[in-house]
Amino acid sequence: MEKKELIGLREQIDETDASLLELLNQRQSLSIKVGQYKNSEGLKIFDPGRERDLLDRLKKLNTGPLSDQALANIYRQIISASVAAQASIKVGYLGPEATFAHEASLNQFGNSAHLIPQGSHREVFQGVDRGRFNYGVVAVENSSQGGVGETLDLFIEFDLQVCQEIRLRINHHLMSRAEDLNEVKRVYSHPQALQQCSHWLTSNLPDVPLLEAGSTSAAARQAAEENDSAAVASSVAADIYGLEIIGRAIQNAEQNVTRFLILAKSSGARTGRDKTSIIATTENTPGSLFSLMEPFSVNGINMTKIESRPMKDEAWAYVFFIDVEGHVEDEVMKRTLDEVKQRSRWLKVLGSYPQVD
User: Fold this and answer.
1) What CATH number corresponds to the domain at position 311?
2) Cα separation of 106 and 114, whole Å?
3) Residues 278 and 346 in one domain
4) Residue 225 falls within a domain, yes or no?
5) Does the reported pTM lie above 0.85?
6) Cβ distance 178 to 247 under 8 Å?
7) Integer Rg of the chain from CA
8) Furthest-apart CA pair in the chain: how many Å?
């Protein structure tokens, strides 16, 4: 390619950028009008069902070379800016910055939302319950380690709803100010992250000390202060602390996914492709659990999860957390939940929300 041709291509890019800017501002103006209507009618600004349908439609229209993932990343920020223009969205999550909960919050709400780190899941629940946050992001289960007991217990205590779920693939990266593995003299990270990356670390840094940190975020911050140190953390941590990733996706398990739920005062509207979460307890008698589950099978409702937790105020009694496909406004779901309620000691619907593929 000659220099003249390169200049011509860059001029075309500049013209395209100018057109994109005009269209983005046009879209933002339309979003502001939508927000004005929603505010006048008392409608919710955040609409996860609409966002999912928008991204699905755009992926079907996409002919490349832009990948579907790149398209989703771009539109996530566009949607975030649109929502911010309609209202100020405050989101609480388990901090500090650069944790996977932070990454999940960024993936869902974008950089234009006010993301506020909290010291515990309880603080996230309390913040939403008391109106400090519009939404809260909490981890509920991991594909390799199971449910997050603290979160499940808090759902019993607080009268909050689930309005969306997030599935975040957990990728641990080795990051450093150093540019080469040979320069790394120590590695910091949370003990769990070090364990999850033990195979790679043993093979590639066999003689390097592994030092525990309070969080992957704290590890990245420490590595940023030392020229010959590295950290195992998320890509968000690398961005925040200005570190270079010198080892990508070094975790032992390729498929390591954490599921997060978004807390709100109310759940989502019916979209036609939804999921519902409930909590229920049964009598401690033979066949009671089968009796509780039977209405879902009889009415053709698919159950995607069931997990038990011990009750805090009664020995050898258990609470069951159940996810099923469908929305509480579906007639078959209404009928089924009525049957389940009759067969349970106690039942609580945590909310309905759009399914995530």
Assistant:
1) 3.30.70.260
2) 10
3) yes
4) yes
5) no
6) no
7) 23
8) 82
Over residues 155-182, the pLDDT tens digits come to 999 999 999 999 998 899 999 999 889 9
CA–CA gap between residue 261 and residue 148 (Å, rounded): 11
Q: Say which amino acid occupies 132.
A: R
Owning domain of residue 334: 267-354
| Distance, C-alpha 357 to centroid of its chain | 13
Does a structural domain hold residue 111?
no
Give the end of a domain, one of 69, 87, 105: 87
With respect to residue 160, please indicate whether it lies within any of the assigned structural domains.
no
CA dist list (Å): 61 to 52, 68, 124, 190: 14, 10, 38, 42
What CATH number did the domain enclosing 190 receive? 3.40.190.10
Residues 6+ apart with CB under 8 A from 108: 48, 76, 137, 164, 166, 262
Q: How many domains does the chain have?
A: 3
Pick from 241, 250, 104: nearest CA to 173? 250
H/E element, 115:
strand 114-118
In a domain, 83, yes or no: yes
- Dihedral pair phi/psi, residue 121, rounded to 5°: -65, -35
CB 179 within 8 Å of CB 191: no
Q: Among candidates 143, 116, 139, which has minimal Cα distance to 127?
A: 116
- Same domain for 290 and 236, yes or no, is no
Closest CA to 92 of 153, 138, 46, 45: 138
CATH number at residue 32: 1.20.59.10
Q: Find the DSSP H helices in 179-312.
A: 191-196, 198-204, 216-223, 235-241, 288-298
Chain segment 302-354, per-residue pLDDT in tens = 999 999 888 777 776 788 999 999 999 999 999 999 999 999 999 999 999 99
Can you tell me the distance from the alpha carbon of 40 to that of 43, in angstroms, rounded to the nearest whole number? Answer: 8
